[in-house]
Design brief:
Elements: H1 14-28, H2 35-42, H3 46-52, H4 56-74, H5 84-99, H6 103-115, H7 117-137, H8 144-166, H9 174-194, H10 200-209, H11 212-223
Helix pairs in contact: 1-2, 1-4, 1-6, 4-5, 4-7, 5-9, 6-7, 7-8, 8-9
Length: 267
Amino acid sequence: MVEAASAPTRGIDLSELAEHALTLADERGWNDVALRDVAKRAGLPLAQLYRQCPSKWALLRAHARHVDAQVAETLEPEDLQEPAKDRLFEVLMNRFDALGDHKPAVRSILECTLRDPAQAFGGYGQLRRSMTRMLQAADLSTAGVRGELRVNGLCGVYLLALRTWLDDDSADLSKTMAALDGYLRRIERPAEVLEGRERARDVVRDTVKDSPVGRGLSRMVRGAGSDADGPVIEGEATEVPETKGAGTMGEPPVDDPHPGPGSSAVH
């Protein structure tokens, strides 16, 4: 007896299923979304979904990859002629735009992740992979120690800006833009020191000079009749040898290896 050939199953687009999962999470929260709900919403047999997607977190990994690619596609060649900070600003704002339809879901996913240490660890792995791709989309190297520092710094900037984005109810995301610009400025000058374009003592001098302590010291010295006309700390910082080497934050080295592996979460 010849067995009847089984009907071919259509391929599954995980990023499309991730959209269904996020829509459900918008409605009821991430904890209350199960794969059977996603399969039902997509009109798929649950067994077929299980074969290609072992957990709903796998859908988040697929969604992160989809957003990474979507953001990279929004950049035009002329955008890459802008300063590095401006390129990163553009990339991250495009990322927030891509996530904009699912803000309730993103908030719920983050809350669930923070309550689960295992998922938090996996989520940070995916965040690092996505931020690596964002740096590369902005034409910035992720190679070597400098690349690691860039990835770690951008992860911090993104998480801080994400917190603002979640509570930003402005139509043009003006609060998010202002916060992101400020966070990027904070890491811009340390990056210049890292690349050898600015001396560390100058950054320290300007930072202290602009602080309440620095201003107070300056007033005290001048009030005591000092003939110092400039900032009183200018000559106090220890000289740090300038670094010779590759270009600035906006001029990546030629050799740029592929980013390392990461794990799962939507960012």
